[in-house]
């Protein structure tokens, strides 16, 4: 009797097989028709000679132990499209079961024995490094069979993640990572858990000599779909406690949604959506002194009654050009500014610092009094019905990890010193109580210290850098350093209008087209003149409308998170300085730098803090998807590089092309402009005028010479007739298999 394969009705709720995307159907065996075995099914990839995915059912109540069988080829599949024994011979790469034999050896003995034998078809194997297969992957599979909360009946999907970084090997490719999706019911409700485990670290350590601790993540199902081009039934996306991006459920229930969660053991696995409460959103919502902000749409203010009317101008990198005819702040509710104690306390601090970084800082007795008054306004609530933001931060820092805190004890930490010229050489972090915490915050922000990041800067201050900005010398020119607070920018614009200062807003620009839809943040270029020193900030930014106490609270929060992240990595940190968050459905990286000591270790004084707006729906994957090489956009002008074809179909380099696009509202004459790559240049010889929004394709190499596009990666530049770089992009290596693959840069 023929095996029925994966049982879609195995659970109380029907679960269908994944659907293949169009890119997969082109290389699927028998157009994606599943191969059925006892208790599992799979779909083969003719290109890699392995499965796109496997799907199996587990009945844990009737599992039995059986001896291993022998590996064999499946006679139903053309031998040309199976990775057989020669691929796995004499190397460190295991025949990794996609469907684990111990998981499908259930039922009556003949049935279980057939499943055991079927699991040893080469169609069910993939190249897994021995240490990966027998360590991280095995631990996940053991959890799958042993965790009681999963219940006795499960449906499981498994497969490789093939990317442009896969390693060619014996006629196939070693996958960069593997994924597993577990589906079960709990109390009659559908449950889903998704995982991704990377093995690409072995590319630099083929024999695993360094005993690498490979990266493992609990992820959203959407991320797996984006990396594999496989699509599951919609209920599974909703049943996963980790969402890739906000959806109707998360929005209506005020749930923040990180993209992935690193896991080192089963105890790190998240099971409920309620596990997520991002403290950054809590602080944002609790900011009672926030100013409401509106932007302009189609020549009209979207909210005439807003406290701030933000007039962003310029949609591209101004490249030192002034694209702004007007000030950034069209109007601000100055009455509200005047009657808010924290804003007024902040205003008294503005003239306490030198604008030139080279000039040392020191506090007078009066200035120390002003600092204490500012902290008092930030630590106290405006009304008796609200919890001060700094108190929220303190409780979060000292709360247990089990309930979402950072787990610092309420005590003095002599092993966390941060001496300063202001508050003494014996200062250290003290969380004993709120009064001690306030002293710690004072030193964190206002303590004057020597920073050794690049060159020694004496009298550095986190508060000055973030809230006020300063000018520093870089070679033969001056740059604006810091300057990340909106009120200071507004006051300087007002003073410039009265001839009392020289601040020039050059225009706004964002990494993506959605930036100017968000009025909570400004990303801009500016020029600031102090005396005879003119300094440029090519790209900077700040939150708009945020109160001083909210800025202080967020920077303090990130300082403690950053310190914790060094020894106990937090899932929402990208590296050591980029803290991912979602605020009102927008994705940000909150950047936090701490002081650099003389021995190049990081101290505890805050050095810089600012936001980077990512997007309204951050879809940056963990791995570069196989369908598109990693592309980087450096700079955009009025005409942009829109796409390129570095690897045309057929042999040789003929017909490589680059497409440019006119982003202006009028005709642009591009005659004589050049495309330049690492290999050479190609000139647009024919008379060409681009209409608004139109693309123009340039053959950059037709059989020799010109701006050849290497399959190993290159930069591409668009130059005008005066050799100015109008647009510049970069792409990483593209797969030799991906002939005809167009790289899109927009």
Question: Would you write up a description of this structure?
Answer:
The chain is an alpha+beta fold and 746 residues long. The chain is built from 18 helices and 42 strands. The strands form 12 sheets. An 8-stranded antiparallel β-sheet has the order 2-3-4-7-10-11-12-14, with helices on both faces. Strands 23-24-27-26-25 form a 5-stranded mixed β-sheet. It has a 5-stranded antiparallel β-sheet with strand order 32-41-40-36-37, with no helix packed on it. A hairpin with a 2-residue loop joins strand 26 and strand 27 (533-543). Mean pLDDT is 85; it is low at 208-212, 244-253 and 617-630.
Sum this structure up briefly:
It contains 18 helices and 42 strands. It has 746 residues and is α+β, with helices and mostly antiparallel strands. The strands form twelve sheets. It has an eight-stranded antiparallel sheet, with helices on both faces.
